[in-house]
């Protein structure tokens, strides 16, 4: 067993060699806290507060209604194009609008319409609840049934009855990452569509939607993309499905000529058909500002650091947390979050937060520590583990 | 015919006697423009820019994830309660979430579920497009048909087949206000539900949802409520329907115990069941800040000024715009907008905007001038009409 002082030296050396260390300064983070909840709510880039205030003063106040034709109306697609490279999507397939839940509804209904002869929706049995809830509602409205299957069993369970399978790329409880390309290919062999939820992977691991042949995807922007609390989510529709993507929240913002104010809806030819109502500009432009921190960030470097932060967590836990059960896989089949089992997780996390180590917990018994390569340091990882040791 | 100088004196006298004149100072409006588009995008209250920046710095940055349990999660219902008095709703019936289009979808599907034996949805034939588009999609998903009927014919057209009728309280083209209590009663006599779209009436005329016996309502917050571009909309469900309000966008935010992360959805007992996904906090708290301008505003005084601004517009137009066709009714059956027919509306409005008179136009041929009693002055009304005279 190494001494804590050795781990301190190791952490310092890792931080000194970190090619992303300079990014930390772009975030507004109190030096007294160690923030491990970027997988739930990303930290604010420093320039966002002033940028949002400027949007209010200069665009809303200064230009008033004119701003709608000076960039606001097209912002959902423009900001989508900024996220596209982070998920391996060529232009024209991503739009930012509404919440993840609402985008799941659009995507699932559209998927059933693309697959009229198939009566079943498969849902990742370990899914974040909202995905399953929305799938149940879509099934009820479209006369389908939902079957819950763990992701790794989907290749064996998918059949000619399966319209679409909804899978979380990274599991929100354990941090496990699923094999996007492999599972998508298996679904396709059975003629099913693949709908991926990227909430816990976008901005963490490299996502390659186009290369994996993914049909549809959704994701949130307030975790590793740091867009702000409840910032609007995104919807991806693969180019091959765009013409036939027929979604039920056909509000005026998805119409091909919204200001013509016609009586009958005609979907926009492009990804704007994924829009519903008037876009929420203040939140959307806060996200737009937050995305500036990705300028010049190599996704490979990001992933390497995310894995290294996790490896260092494992190492510290092995040395300092005798007998702890870690739920996160140790291989590369993980996102940027470490989940530690704890029978009294709510109480333990409250104690950690009191000591400035801010993570969260999920039922029934998991402490979650998010590792955000843009701002998490190795020193903080050690602090998390040594603080946790005091409460076990 | 009176001289313009007489109208100038009249405007000055009206402004001097205006009991809401002091409110103008609470808005960030450039003195060089006369803003007549508060019926499309309300002007920003001065304090909103700093309040939003403070939310980013102090709540998001300062408290990070902890803010979700320090007011953010409940904000949709809390802010809804602030709007409730403006629409005559007792507590517990209003929630702020998503866009108007998305809320229309929730309300219309829920209405068809409350009326299983009825196969028709009536839609105001002059509706803002998105309402009709969403109704068409709801009909398609639920096996209903949509019939478009002008609002005043609904009492004659409603039948035992009608599940619900969707009516705009104030028509977006003409500014005409419909008789909410009378039409609702006529729908009820036939056993149909009444769903009102308040986008162009909330914050303008007094709305009395409870007293009129309205079943369901939606409305936007970025027009006369000044919530900011695309700020989240609201949904009203009358208390008598709350227990049976069964909406299809059953995301985790509407669940009775969202952080238990259960596998099966159970709707919240209260109006929070109208929520779908994670709330958009920056926009929601910008709206929250904007609502401060309503403190101490008497709705009767507001309505009186709104009508008086319109009356003065009519008077100026009668004197100065020879032969102009005004589409807005002259009685009290109108909102706070005056619509003037113009065969070249797009070009005329562009010329007006060039001269600092900012309204908008709607196809095929209507110039719209919104009158916001909290900040529009009689002097500006005269300026609008005299400027318009130059381009006719």
TrEMBL record, chains A, B:
InterPro entries per UniProt: Aminotrans_V_dom (IPR000192), Kynureninase (IPR010111), PyrdxlP-dep_Trfase (IPR015424), PyrdxlP-dep_Trfase_major (IPR015421), PyrdxlP-dep_Trfase_small (IPR015422)
GO molecular function: kynureninase activity; pyridoxal phosphate binding
Pathway: Cofactor biosynthesis; NAD(+) biosynthesis; quinolinate from L-kynurenine: step 2/3; Amino-acid degradation; L-kynurenine degradation; L-alanine and anthranilate from L-kynurenine: step 1/1
One GO BP: L-tryptophan catabolic process to kynurenine
Job description of the protein: Catalyzes the cleavage of L-kynurenine (L-Kyn) and L-3-hydroxykynurenine (L-3OHKyn) into anthranilic acid (AA) and 3-hydroxyanthranilic acid (3-OHAA), respectively.
Cofactor(s) for this UniProt protein: pyridoxal 5'-phosphate
Subunit (UniProt): Homodimer.
GO CC annotations, alphabetized: cytoplasm
Catalytic activity: 3-hydroxy-L-kynurenine + H2O = 3-hydroxyanthranilate + L-alanine + H(+); L-kynurenine + H2O = anthranilate + L-alanine + H(+)
Family: Belongs to the kynureninase family.
Highest rank taxon of the organism: Bacteria
Organism per entry: Amycolatopsis lurida NRRL 2430
E.C. designation(s): 3.7.1.3
Listed name of the protein: Kynureninase
Protein keywords: Antibiotic biosynthesis, Hydrolase, Pyridine nucleotide biosynthesis, Pyridoxal phosphate
